[in-house]
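Chain A, query sequence.
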Amino acid sequence: MTTHAPCETALAMSRAATPAGTGRPAPSVARDVVALATRAPSLHNTQPWRWRIVSDDVLELFAAHDRQLRVLDPRGRLMTLSLGAALHHAMVAARAVDRAVTVERFPVGGPPDLVARLHLGEVVHAGPAERIALSSLVARRTDRRPFSSWELPEDRLRHLGELAASYGVTTVRLDARQRVAVERLVAAAAGHHDGSPLTAGELAEWWGGDREGAGVPGALVPDRLLDPLGIGRCEGGALEVDAPDDCASQHTAVLALCHPDDSPDGWLATGEAMSAVWLEAVSEGLGMVPVSLPVEVAEVRVRLREDVLGLLAHPQLLLQVGWPHTASARLAPSPRRPLDDVIVP
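Chain A, predicted structure.
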């Protein structure tokens, strides 16, 4: 099991020390929680969130609609998944710095862009599980390079599925036939994007080249494609792939995260589940990368649901899971917006 101890973790914990005898959060705790929550993954690293520190023990998470991909994600579904990941990251951070936390999701009577309100409660000292989760949060990367050919233990995949189920999310592991079908859907969705000047233009605003604060820099995009699931997202960048051409992608698992409620409630829950599964995978030494192309195009998503999965539940996102290749050097983190840009009055 991975036991990272990055300096950022120690800093957050030291700043979050509880005032002696008060049992109440220190003034810096709320800001520390937000800082760690901003590490959450988001569609094309758009970081579509804003946070408001109401008091030392109340935080509010808002959707930043000006960062929504209006062409690619007109309903805001993938934006809301990203917000769910940020919410889960905040909960992990709060518990790791010794705070109980309760959440109101889509609070009644709040403004339309208010997604969640977090209440930091009394001191509840974190145990090993909470510390490991926070270390995984800091260590997590979106690594688009090929995975290794090591076999994945079935018990670990079952555990990830059970974890997702605790958020009301059904996890379907694709078999060989389904995987081939999904590879075709990835290619179809990529072709749709390439043929749409509006979509291509929107993607260009967030993808490749030099990036500061948000988006996916070319330095984090592989220079060549070895896995059909990475079409359009894992090629053409500046990140050298130091792996053999026969790097066996078939030894990875592809998990479809599905929810019966195709509304903001279901989208948010799926985002929370994605974050929980990802951090658990990191703690076990596994790598994970989202595959969103098949759910970005409406008609392709319908084909995924009806022709490939055959489910009543709605596919929200695919996750590819595998062992990182031993030849792969550790990646730098994706760029993040300044904290003062994220926190609003």
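The mean pLDDT is 87. The CA atoms of residues 141 and 330 lie 9 Å apart.
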